[in-house]
Design a protein that fits this description.
The complex is a heterodimer of chains A (120) and B (110). Chain A has no helices and eleven strands. Chain A is mainly beta. Chain B has no helices and nine strands. The chains are: A mainly beta (120), B mainly beta (110).
């Protein structure tokens, strides 16, 4: 059974940093592109970033470029999102997801999400 | 502000059919696969349709997808109370070099 479990969310002040983790199991993690998708309270879904199987390609939504870094450790079956210079508008539930169609997205399995709140 | 536009809400009686539209452009829907997701209240999204009209294993065949030009549609037939949820279309956008979700549509079963 495919499982994705996020962790690392919490309350952080504006300008602060946070690192999210996603532990994957039940599939060959190193064979899939992976994504982070977020959802602000009461709002729609927003794709944040994705990463190739070997980490050699990464794509980001414009609003997080230069502030967020996606990475992975295939030996640990883990996906990460380093978030720096956080802003109030980054407040959201962050989901880790597996990409079914490679670089072009299409997330077929999702974690339960971890809440990030940016507030003073 | 999403580049994929959906109606905010649709509603219909049980056992009826509803259609949700998703309007985009040549850089996204017009040139890439469209995917649809269902998000039940308080839950993570679930993939409903991929590659325009394919159903993942386990998804009811009451759901169907179609695409024409720069627009796509999701149809739900035999509407049931358990279909009450938010639905999102999505596609890769070649101009933005990123994946974009639609604005989302709330389906209400009357």
């Amino acid at each position: 059974e495919v499982q994705l479990v996020e962790s690392g969310g919490g309350l952080v002040q504006p300008g602060g940093s946070l690192r999210l983790s996603c532990a994957a199991s039940g599939f060959t993690f190193s064979s899939y592109w992976m994504s982070w998708v977020r959802q602000a309270p009461g709002k729609g879904l927003e794709w944040v970033a994705n990463i190739k199987q070997d980490g050699s390609e990464k794509y980001y939504v414009d609003s997080v470029k230069g502030r967020f870094t996606i990475s992975r450790d295939n030996a640990k079956n883990s996906l990460y999102l380093q978030m720096n210079s956080l802003r109030a508008e980054d407040t959201a539930v962050y989901y880790c997801a597996r990409d079914l169609l490679g670089s072009s997205g299409c997330q077929d399995y999702w974690g339960q999400g971890t809440l990030v709140t940016v507030s003073s | 502000q999403s580049v994929l536009t959906q109606p905010p809400s649709v509603s219909e009686a049980p056992r009826q059919r509803v259609t949700i539209s998703c309007s985009g452009s040549s850089s996204n829907i017009g040139n890439n696969a469209v995917n649809w997701y269902q998000q039940l209240p308080g839950k993570a999204p679930k993939l409903l349709i991929y590659y325009d009209d394919l159903l993942p294993s386990g998804v009811s065949d009451r759901f169907s997808g179609s695409k024409s030009g720069t627009s796509a549609s999701l149809a739900i037939s035999g509407l049931q109370s358990e279909d009450e949820a938010d639905y999102y279309c999505a596609a890769w956008d070649d101009s933005l070099n990123g994946y974009v979700f639609g604005t989302g549509t709330k389906v209400t079963v009357l």
